[in-house]
Amino acid sequence: LGLALYAGSLCAATSATFLYHDYCVIGAGPAGLQAAYFLQRAGRDYIVFERSHAPGSFFALYPRHRKLISINKQYTGKSNSEFNLRHDWNSLLSHDQRLLFRRYSHDFFPNADAMVRYLEDFASLLKLRVQYNTAIIHVTLERDEQAWNGHYFILTDQDRRNYKCSSLLVATGTWVPNVVNFPGSEYVEGYETVSINPEDFAGQTVLILGRGNSAFETAENILGVTNFIHMVSRSRVRLSWATHYVGDLRAINNGLLDTYQLKSLDGLLEGDLEDLAIVKDKKGKLHITLRFYLENRNTSAGIDSITLPQDELDNFATRAPYDRVIRCLGWKFDFSIYNRSLKMMPGKGTKKKYPQIKPSYESRGTRGLFVLGTASHSVDFRKSAGGFIHGFRYTIRAIHRLLENRHHGVPWPSTVYPITQLTNSIIKRVNEASGLYQMFSVLADIILLRENATVFEYLEEYPIGVLAELEMQTGRKAPNGLFVIIMEYGRNFSGADKDVFYYNRAVGEAQHAWQSNFLHPVIYYYKRLPTEREMRLRPPDWPLPRPDAIHHIVEDFLTDWTAPNAHILPLRRFLENCLGTDLRNFFAESCFLFALTRQKLPPCCQQGYVRMQGLLGSERLRRHAAEAGLLQDDTVTDLLGDRPPDSHTGAQDQLLRDHVITVHPLQHLVNAKDE
């Protein structure tokens, strides 16, 4: 009993030392700071833990050669700040116009040091609550039915201080180098430590393991001073302009492709790195062989006793010895700090470097644990931009909105409009919205129909992977059907083996919009909210289940979807067919005529003319409408009566009187018909 009492008092003393916060954020990189911004704006209790003395410590070292591949477009020809974010891949979202990245660098591909300065200012100017020099070394769970998620998260730092939080946001990125172990791998230099001084490679022969941007970045740096560079990787090179995935090889780094294809000694090879072996000779040269040649052999006996591939195949591609071998295989998520109780498991296949998470960015194993930023890229790996600043700044905002609804009862932000504004609302968003544009096929605008489709509710940038859970995740109801607006590339246009420059690659006619290849808006219509089963069984490569109706707005060379005939008219007719109503706008005269000749007025007349609202006409406007075929000439003549043709002011005055004294135009029209 004494031991039990002592243990209980010890536990109580220990729990008393916990520093509690509602939200704990691990990592003060771009993702952690973006999450902190939204939490602070909402007035939430949070803390950000950063192991370094300043935010963005990853960018203080990487990329090693200091040039970012995220574009920083200074000019777009437009002043719309939301549109300009489509071409600003470095800024985080905030209300402070000082914190736009273009104020920190004018380079199209900025230096990484500018990112370090930017993140420092972002944290300091916004007064974000970041606790520096705090390395979280262990995370576990404490069960408690009173907690938000049925448990608390217990975090321990390097000084054995403990922290307790209800919700954990992991924004540590992927920073552990990928390492392949094979015989002789001890002779390999890592990207994280290799020299960046080209003079250190003068006159040398270099082999690079890897095929991503870090590998080509390293090759680009030494391309002009080496004898030759060979690059080996398991997969073929993937060009970002062909895959439309910004994480694949970018043009700024692909100089080695020129020297390879133009036969200037450099070259690319494909092979499984785990099948390789490296043998060092007495002169320090590194020879590439295959693992099976070394089986049951004593490698310490010397290279002369080891069979090399060129001994059997005298034109073996890598028969020339190398001076240096450099590993550039990217990074993976650090799972080591998470207790087994959290069930933080790596993904499968190509996603094994990321933790397993749901489309809502919540851990599959632990409720209340959300993964942010680069580490959350498994949701859209090789599909969209969720692993990069210009993508995850929007997914983090979406996560914040999900948390606001779940824990604080704040519904997803929405705006209610009359149905007459449906076409305009869609056109405005597809031409301006940066979240839809950057996170194509992942984030979508949702239009919820209400009150027999006389009004609609507009929700912006919702994760479509959890569309079936929309009512629970947003606090909004969808009883009357919905539209989903997303951006997509053509189904068969992206891929490492695709020729994206072929003749007639673009579509220009509205009737062929469904064949559009380049990024373009797509509108899905559902009479009811799709179920989880329908989401799970959706067609391959489809972001959503099969809809009741679908409409593609034809791709546009200028990404400007405002053409009246090519873009707006087909969209309006699609919406009208889905809703069974007329979404056109009418002048007061037409609404008045419809009131006498139709059983049901168009929404424009119901919500405008009948309520004494709408556009006041003039004689010039009426004549223009008549010439355009919008009004019949006899209707114009009847309604104008004997007014002088040039009486502009008189026409307005008469129309005003018509609106104020509604019996007069009715009697006038009846008299005209009697005559």
TrEMBL record:
InterPro entries: Auxin_biosynth/cation_transpt, FAD/NAD-bd_sf. The keyword Glycoprotein applies. Keywords: Endoplasmic reticulum, FAD, Flavoprotein, Glycoprotein, Oxidoreductase, Signal. Its cofactor is FAD. GO terms for cellular component: endoplasmic reticulum lumen. One of its GO terms (molecular function) is flavin adenine dinucleotide binding. GO terms for biological process: ERAD pathway. It comes from the Eukaryota. Pfam families: Pyr_redox_3 (PF13738). Probable flavoprotein which may function in endoplasmic reticulum associated degradation (ERAD). May bind non-native proteins in the endoplasmic reticulum and target them to the ubiquitination machinery for subsequent degradation. Belongs to the FOXRED2 family. Interacts with SEL1L. May interact with OS9 and DNAJC10. Interacts with TXNDC16. This is FAD-dependent oxidoreductase domain-containing protein 2. It comes from Hemiprocne comata.
